[in-house]
Structure formats: C-alpha cells, structure tokens
Amino acid sequence: MKPILSVRDLQKVYPDGTKAIKGMSFDIMSDERVAIIGRSGAGKSTLLRCLNQLIPATSGEVTFLDQSVTRASGGAVRRIRRQIGIIFQQFHLVDRVSVIDNVLHGRLGYMNALQGAFGLYSSVDRKRAEALLERVGLGDKANQRADALSGGQQQRVAIARACMQNPKLMLADEPIASLDPVTAITIMDMLTQLTTEQNIPLIVNLHQVDVAKTYATRIIGVRAGEIVYDGTPDDLTEEMLNWIYQGEVTQLHASKPVLNKESHKVVLV
Amino acid sequence: MLQLRWKNMLVITFLVSMVGWSCVASEFKPVMVITSMSDAFAYIWNDFLPPDFVNWQHMLKYLLDTIYMCYIATFISVVISLFISLCASQTTTPVKWLYPIARGIASVLRTIPSTVWVLLLVVSVGIGLTSGVLAMILAGVGWLTRAFAEVFDEMKQGQMEALRATGAGWVHVVSQGILPQSLPAILAWALYAFDNSIRDSTIIGMVGGGGIGFYLQESVKLFQFQEMTAGLVALLALIIGIEFATNMLRRKLL
User: Fold this and answer.
1) Average pLDDT for residues B80-84, to the nearest whole number?
2) Fewer Cβ neighbours under 10 Å: the N or C end of chain A?
3) Residue ranges of chain A whose pLDDT lies below 50
C-alpha cells in the first residue's frame, strides 16, 4: 500500500533563526490515526502547517498523493490544499457569516474566482452542506451567525467545513485545547468517525497524552523539533513520555476515557 | 537650579518676543482687535442679520447639489479605497511588492488637502461640480485607504488562514472572509467620510468646486450678506442633520 503522505527530512527555520523542525521523516497510510504529542513550542503546529504549505518548509520534501507539496506553487498549492482538511484550536470560522456559509467555504478551493467571490455554490453543494451540518448535530443552526455558537459547536462547524472539501487527509491542530473535557470527547469522536468512514488518515496535534492514547493508532512524539518517538500507543512508556514532556505530562481527565472500538464512542471509566 | 531658571526665563522671553516680532512683521495690531471688536459686531448685526431666505429656491438647489456631490464622491472614494487598501495592508496584500506602492499612493493623496486639489482641478477641468467631486474623491481616497488598511491590519489572521487552507484563492478570501468580517468598520468609516465631505464642501465650493460654498461665495461677491447668512444657517442645519443621521446609523452598525 502506498502512503497518502510522505515526509522526508523536513526542516523549518524561521526568519528569526528559530529552528522549529530539525529534519523529520515519516509516512502516513490511509487507515492511520496519528497523534502528534509534545510540549508547546516543540514544533507540532509548524509541522502541521508545512504539510499543506500554510507555512513554506525550509528544506526537505512533503509528498501528498504523489504530488510534491514543498515544491508546489500557485494553483498547484490550491489544488493540494483543497484535498487536505484542517481543524484549528480556535476554530477560525468567519464569525459574522452564517453557519451554512462557513460550511460552504469548504468548496471554495473547487470554484473559480467569480463563482467564489459571489458565493454561487451549486445546489448539490448546498444539499451536502446541510447534510453535513445535520451530521454534526447542528442542522437547526444553519442560518445563525457563526459567532452565536458555543466553542464546541463552532468546532463542529469547522469539522463540517473541512469535510465539505472531500479531503483525502485530515489535519487537526490542538482541536480540543479550547474546549471543556466533555465537549472535547464529542469533537474527538466526530473526527474519528468521519475520517474512518471516509477511509482517510487523521493527523492530530494533541496536548493530552490520555486522549492521544485513546484515539490514535500511532503516536509520534516530538521534542524540540525532532521526532523522538514513533510507534503504537501501547509501546509508549512512562520514561518516553517524561523524555518528550521533560517531566510535564498533561492529563485531561482524572478518570480515563476509553474508546469503544465498534461504536467509536468514548466512555469514561 | 538658578541656571535652570535662567534657561526657562530665556525661553519665555524668546517666545514672547517672537510674538512681538511676528506682529510687527505682519502688521497685525492686537490693539485693533480689541478696539474694533464692537464695530465688527455692529457690522455683523446690521449687515448679516437677519438671514434673508428670499432666494431659497436658488439656495436649495446648491444645497441639494452639495448632498449629491458628497454622496457621489464618498461612494466612489470608498470603492477605490477598498481596492487600494487591500494592497496597503500587509495582511491582505495579494503580492508583497504592491504594498509599498499602495501605501505611497495613499500618502501622496493624503498630504495634499482637498482645497489644493480643487485649485488644481479648476484650472484643468473648469469651475463647477466636476472639479469639486474629483477633489473630494482624491482627498477621500487618501485617508480612507489608510483607515481601511488599518481595519484589515487588525483582522484575525486565523480566519484568513483557515480559508486559505481550504484551497481558496485571494479573491475568495477577500470576498468571503475579509469583507464580511470588516463590513461594520468599513461602513462606519464610509459614513464618517460622508459627514466629513459635507463639511469640506463649503470651502471646496468657495474655491470653485460647486455646491453650497459656491452660493456663499456668490452672495458675498454680490454684497448679499443677509442671503449669505441664510446659506450659512441652512448649511449648519444640514451639517447637524447629517451628523445626527450618520451617528445613529453608525451606532446601529457597531
């Protein structure tokens, strides 16, 4: 099986000299759910943004579905980005605009300048956006302004927007860091279910080790811009965690959430 | 301390003597201001009052002209400013090299006051409304561009990043993200610009740009001082009225 995404020797040096990523390599297969864990400033966010060129890499190669992301420019970048959904910590909805329009924004990458400028979405797209909103449980909020929604609801809209892109890869940058624990579980469930259904890989940056262990099939530990762990959640030892977090392991819950493999629902035990 | 006081005394002496020198050099006589005060008031009382609205139809035409002028000028300068300001903000410029060019255009336009624009345009375009409107547009674009660019500068970067991440192009990000997000601020500035242009129109008309200023100037030239006062009263009412209306709209927007 060919990997969906392949990263080779990726490096990122910011103009101020900060070395955010110091040579990372990994492959992502279509059935993988990867959690990237590490302290703030370890380079997790930069890494994710290099994968769809929101931040240009300094050197190295990112290949997505046989196309080079790192060497793409102009229209090619747009064609790559529209196939990669991304969820942000702060949701980043256009908050003065209606919920349904925010979901429809997921189609902009497939439209020409004029269609997009006037929001001339096809009726197929509109139906699909409604269905997706229904799917994330916000069917009744379609015409509300996005800023009228709670944080968890906004994140669900952001997930619907990403799904609207028909992505071949889903990225999430600390998707639950601004949410309360219960909402956080709903969001993680939703991301897991939707990506599993579409048979697309999910790469998620997480702060909470317990959540990462529960949801991920593979964990990549990042420390100071380098991958120090790449393996299954079960093999992730206490010593390794201490090494990754330099003694600062973050726990989301006092009780432990466990993923039911059949229903993809999480229960607290 | 003594030395410091000495310095202060010197500075004060210098400042006061400069006033004296300026008066002598410009032949401005401060005493005259006081002695002729009563004359001046008597003159205003006798010749300018009461306002004479006999030519009200004539006056109304110019007053309406002023409103039309200002409306057209504001509308056009808002549209032009939107385009330039998108380039004049580092967060929204489509290509980096457009940024200094857009900033430059705005700075040049801003340094030249609208009255100077009219004087230039009256020579090339001729006396009348066209010159006035053009002058208002040029001056308006200058400062509106800067105001809009500041609005875009303060926009949340994340929303634009999220749109770009969906594969949206620049036109998409602007039309679907930046414009809807900054619409209230843009409209508030546009209302202020309209307000401002009404006030500006008096002096623009006086130097040949048409509108109510032109009427005032005309009345003075014909020694119809009471008609001029009528014009001033009407103008004052207009300014207060427009300011009241725009303030109300602005409060509704924000």
Assistant:
1) 93
2) N
3) 252-255
